[in-house]
Amino acid sequence: MSSGAADVLEGATVVETLEEAIVDCSLVVGASARSRNLPWPLVNPREMAQQALALPAEAKIALVFGRERSGLTNDELARCSCHVNIPANADYSSLNVASAVQVLCYELRMSAVLSQGTEQPLWGVEWDQPPATSGQLEGLFEHWQKLLVDIDFLDPTLNFARATG
Question: Is residue 156 part of a domain?
C-alpha cells in the first residue's frame, strides 16, 4: 500500500511457514515487547542494526514481527538468532506492527548511512567465511541429535521440547 512500493510487492515471495521464510537467512531478528525468560541475546534496535550491517553484503537478514494482537510465540522467537525490544513507555510498551517495522527500518537505514564511506567493518574484523544460515544451523542440530541418539547419549523416547517459556 506504500506509495512507490509496487515493485516490492510484485517481487515478494509468499511461503507457508516461518521456517521456509528464514531458511537462507544468516541473521533472524525477532521483535517482541513482552519480556521473556528465554536464553537468547536481547538487543535494542540500534544494536540490531549494527549487527546486521556488520555481516557480509550477501548475507540475508530477516526481521520477524508478530501479530497485532499477540505478537510472536515463544516457538517463533526460538527460531530467531536474537530478540530485539524497542524501548518504550513502561505503562504501554507495545507498539503496533507498523510502528515497530518503521523503528527497526529507521535504525537499519541510519546505521547504513553512518557506515557509508567507512572502510573498517563495525566489529573490527573482516568475515573470512559467510555466517551460517538458519537452515544450515537447523541441519547441524538435526545431525547432532541423530549422532547423540546413535551413540546412546540421547534417549529419543523422552520428550525434550524446544524452549517455549
Answer: no
